[in-house]
Amino acid sequence: MPEEITNLTQLLFQLERLARTRDHISLEMVMQVVGRRSFAPILLLAGLLLFSPLSGIPGVPTLMGILVLLVTIQMLALRKHFWLPGWMLHRSIPQSKLLKTLHWLERPATVLDRWIKPRLEILATRVGSVVVALVCCAIALLLPLMEVVPFSASIAGLALATFGLAIIAHDGLLVLIAIVITGLVPGLIVNTFL
User: Fold this and answer.
1) Residues whose CB falls within 8 Å of the CB of residue 110, separated by 6 or more in sequence, listed in order
2) pLDDT tens, 33-71?
């Protein structure tokens, strides 16, 4: 049974430990590490992948959008654990790219973990998590469009990671920050197409 993830450093450590055992790491392997009851770590992970240089790989924003949409719809349906289709679970990433991304995220993770703590918990639990799921659904629906808008997928990833971290840490202040970050995405999209 996977350990409960309570901060960003723990998530990165568990993913690095997994990555060192395989040449390619599939989403199914990641699910075994974070657990199928863990909606928030999946939001956090999807956000981190989008915020990292991996978001520049064609198709990654769309794939993460599908993942986030599937997970958040199941959150809204109040499921106790989530389901993902086999074709998505078998998608994989080379060990070298994952380890490079995890290394890139280590320092920011350490800084963030010192700052986050339980506060304004109502925004990160129960009713607040429904609002988070709705906002994340909206982000997920926009992610395919973000493939062509520079930096928008990275900003969306930052918002998703912040939402995931907020739920993990029961930090309502992070929910508010993530909502502000989310507000930047439509502006970038509109600015690009006008």
Assistant:
1) 9
2) 776 556 888 888 889 888 887 777 788 888 889 989 988
In terms of DSSP H, where are the helices of the chain? 8-19, 27-34, 39-51, 60-76, 86-89, 95-115, 127-146, 152-169, 172-193
In a domain, 163, yes or no: yes
Residue 2 lies in a domain: no
For residues 139 and 90, give the distance between their C-alpha atoms in angstroms, rounded to a whole number.
24
Sign (positive/negative) of CA torsion 43, 48, 51, 56? negative
* 47 within some domain: yes
Q: What is the pLDDT of residues 154-184, one digit of tens each?
A: 889 999 999 988 888 888 999 999 999 998 8
What residue numbers bound the domain in which 47 lies?
8-193
For residues 154 and 143, is the Cβ–Cβ distance under 8 A?
A: no
Count structural domains, the chain. 1
In this prediction the pTM is 0.78
Angle at 9 between CA 23 and CA 26, to 5 degrees: 25
117 within domain boundaries: yes
